[in-house]
Amino acid sequence: MSEVTLKQIVEGLLMASEKPLRVEDLYKIVIADDNSFEINKLQEIINEIVNDYNGHGIELKEVASGWRFQVKPDLSQWINKLYEERPPRYSRALLETLVLIAYRQPVTRAEIENVRGVTVSTNIMKTLIEHEWVRVIGYKEVPGRPAIFATTRKFLDHFNFKSLDELPPLMEFTETVLADIKPETESELALASETPLEVDESPMMPEENIEKADVDDSELELM
């Protein structure tokens, strides 16, 4: 297998895949035909493909779940015109809750409510969990044993991050997320624009106060 052919195979696999592929995933496919191939060489080829797409409208990007081809973010306003159905938009309450979980995880629902100053509805938490942006990672060792929430690998993929270390400054991320606010009423939108979200980014609780739920180790590595 020549290097040029291998590069084409890797590019084709990444282009055809419906989900991000890790280097290890690609390696398993490649060594099926050539078991002498070294995984380090595969990463070099990926880096070459990344460089090949400099200046193009698409890019090869590494997110939490692996590598994927995607349209460059600054082209989204034109790409959105291709679709008749607008992407789903969410309420300010849901998006503020997501931001709080992202920056203060691990965190309980009561702690989120304490910061926001209002009740977080069951539907909000259900929606975040159904989207697989948030999951229960354990239960706090206090009376009632409330669930403890954290973001997921899918959350990172959706917002184009490889890990939580890549989260931008809070206000920058808040502005990005709140751009998806559902326009419910003019008065609500006016209030949204005038009321900044203020969040202490320090974690809510020490590790020893958490009873772990049955969580995939790969998810815990992201925390």
Largest sheet: 4 strands, antiparallel
Radius of gyration based on Cα positions: 21 Å
CATH architect. name of the largest domain: Orthogonal Bundle
CATH topology of the largest domain: Arc Repressor Mutant, subunit A
Residue-averaged pLDDT, rounded? 81
Number of helices: 11
Strand order of the largest sheet: 3-5-4-6
Report the CATH superfamily of the largest domain. Winged helix-like DNA-binding domain superfamily/Winged helix DNA-binding domain
Helix content: 40-55%
Q: Approximately what portion of the residues adopt beta-strand conformation? A: 5-15%
The beta-strand count equals 6
- Assembly of the depicted chains: single chain
Structural class: alpha+beta
In angstroms, what separates the terminal alpha carbons? 39 Å
Helix and strand element order? HHHEEHHEHHEEHHHEH
Describe this structure in words.
This protein is an alpha+beta fold and 223 residues long. The chain folds into two domains: 3-81, Winged helix-like DNA-binding domain superfamily/Winged helix DNA-binding domain (Arc Repressor Mutant, subunit A); 92-220, Arc Repressor Mutant, subunit A, CATH 1.10.10.10. 44% of the residues lie in helices and 13% in strands. It is built from eleven helices and six strands. The protein has helices spanning 3-16, 23-30, 39-52, 76-79, 92-104, 109-116, 122-130, 153-158, 170-178, 186-194, 217-220; strands spanning 58-63, 66-71, 107-108, 134-140, 147-151, 210-212. The strands form two sheets. It has a four-stranded antiparallel beta sheet with strand order 3-5-4-6. Helix 1 (3-16) crosses helix 3 (39-52) and helix 5 runs antiparallel to helix 9 (170-178). The chain is globular, with a radius of gyration of 21 Å. The two termini are 39 Å apart. Residues 184-197 have low confidence and may be disordered.
